[in-house]
Amino acid sequence: xxxxxxxxxxxxxxxxxxxxxxxxxxxxxxxxxxxxxxxxxxxxxxxxxxxxxxxxxxxxxxxxxxxxxxxxxxxxxxxxxxxxxxxxxxxxxxxxxxxxxxxxxxxxxxxxxxxxxxxxxxxxxxxxxxxxxxxxxxxxxxxxxxxxxxxxxxxxxxxxxxxxxxxxxxxxxxxxxxxxxxxxxxxxxxxxxxxxxxxxxxxxxxxxxxxxxxxxxxxxxxxxxxxxxxxxxxxxxxxxxxxxxxxxxxxxxxxxxxxxxxxxxxxxxxxxxxxxxxxxxxxxxxxxxxxxxxxxxxxxxxxxxxxxxxxxxxxxxxxxxxxxxxxxxxxxxxxxxxxxxxxxxxxxxxxxxxxxxxxxxxxxxxxxxxxxxxxxxxxxxxxxxxxxxxxxxxxxxxxxxxxxxxxxxxxxxxxxxxxxxxxxxxxxxxxxxxxxxxxxxxxxxxxxxxxxxxxxxxxxxxxxxxxxxxxxxxxxxxxxxxxxxxxxxxxxxxxxxxxxxxxxxxxxxxxxxxxxxxxxxxxxxxxxxxxxxxxxxxxxxxxxxxxxxxxxxxxxxxxxxxxxxxxxxxxxxxxxxxxxxxxxxxxxxxxxxxxxxxxxxxxxxxxxxxxxxxxxxxxxxxxxxxxxxxxxxxxxxxxxxxxxxxxxxxxxxxxxxxxxxxxxxxxxxxxxxxxxxxxxxxxxxxxxxxxxxxxxxxxxxxxxxxxxxxxxxxxxxxxxxxxxxxxxxxxxxxxxxxxxxxxxxxxxxxxxxxxxxxxxxxxxxxxxxxxxxxxxxxxxxxxxxxxxxxxxxxxxxxxxxxxxxxxxxxxxxxxxxxx
Length: 819
Description:
single chain; 819 residues; alpha+beta; Cyclin A, domain 1; 5-stranded antiparallel beta sheet; elongated
């Protein structure tokens, strides 16, 4: 009955929430469920469990009445699903957006719940007791582990069947079971104080741990890199175990910290710890949450809510948030960074108090040397943290770099040289004429942002003239301006490095589209999703629509601000070909929406708007493409390796474009030329040819008219002894048409020789009729040359007659040979 009601549910009502900004205790939100009874009295329903979804920053909490509350911490909304029944465990399904695995006490089932619609898609049955633990394997996402105290079941999610079952006996029930972070091992903690480790692939036992100094084992926890395991129980002992050497690393006595047992433990990942988490959260027997630094073995902070003690807690996989379920049933949601800031403040205050109580007889030089040494240590630690390999490990674990340190991290990844002298020389050249009135083409409300955009584009245009005429460049660099405008030098060097490395082959055919890049993208799409490419072909959409539009805007039109930052975190942390794989990945991930669009206009608009996308799936697909694309079509085959800007008094020259490109010629034209007077190269060539032809034709026509009166006998003689074609003309038009044909043939000859010299030459070689026409034209040319001089003597007339006779003999011979 309840399941049927959920299936016909059309939607859910969502409500807004407001988070506390910089709370003193780190609690950004408190969740409680209070209802009014029939008698009008308020009754509070207690929460039992909860879980996080880091990819979308969502939190799911279940209460004892069978209600599930979904909190969207990114969009600041929450909603509720009812009628599910009491829940014993929750878990967000990886790689499936908005799907929550819910373990219910009704028939001990595990249901797949769509948190947006409230509908149930699948149900897993087979447990004989309520499920307490749900875990997924990171190396095999199709494998699901569910466990109750009496049994554990491994499910194959491709067909929703179980392929392995672990049964226990009385006295050796399961206390906790989970996959290691890498998914290589399956680890279980039993009630008989033993820890069993199985190889996930074969499910063979590889190790059994029986701590001699610990009884009543309760919990195990792993660091994010899976190399260390913490073991705790109801005895005042904490053991750190190495998964590499299978040996204990540390044994910590909890009596020192005024609590005698650990009810629950979990690591809290921190930025720049490389997955070797050093902060361990311990829920002690005093119902307070203690945060311990395992390196110094000190308690850096203790969380003690004022209303009641803590019953249970959970940490998000990236460590950004954690929740504490109190004994009275409320849920406190903490921001880890706020909690760590509070802890650091208290440590600093305690250190300052110790310094104030200590002796102040140290000399000034000693204080200066201590300050210098501490500064050197900080610089050394920063260099270690900013190592590219280390940063990439952090990125793979957390999915993104912290906003606070992003500019510093990008600077380290791109290895920018900080050439202040070279940058100042570009600034001194002022605003480039091409971008003087850029505000007329773009609507930018912030005057500061407009000023920074102008300055960046001008520096790029002064650095390389090509960037003064590329129309897409302002839209490409604008998101970088928004992120890095506080440091103009870093902004310029970052964009310049991007153009050199991640925009290779973009300007190979400038100002035309980059044919080579688009061909590579089309080959990759054909390799990994030929059905989508077929759809593009049927609609008539080319790579200039589904790929070039994304590249020219640097993904800023299709991704939100946070998604854009995360994507470029990954682009800067990988090889230059990563950006092309991201374009193909975006198309493949969005293919369900794309295939519903059956017109060119709809697809054109699709790639100019922000569309919902699962960023985790998008990035995962990009890494799959860059690792599984064949070498013969992989972009790295055609791309150069990463090359940073050179350090010095000037930047290296950008040479990735054709030197004789049309856009560069247009950029060098005089600024005073009116737009209507500007022509393309083809127009200019055509006009110059027409001008030359008309002038030469006019000159020859004038010469013919001038010589006609003196040499009419020559033309009459030509009319009598010309070719058969000329002889067929009527006698009354003989002289007139001879003059017109001569002029006409001369003009055609010049047109043919100027515009098509090769073709005309071949025609003269293989056509006898053309030879006769050429002889007539040559005769006219000789006559024109002779008549330009004034005939003053009989000797000159004799010479003319000899020339004419010789030419006519040749013409007659050619006619005979043709016949």
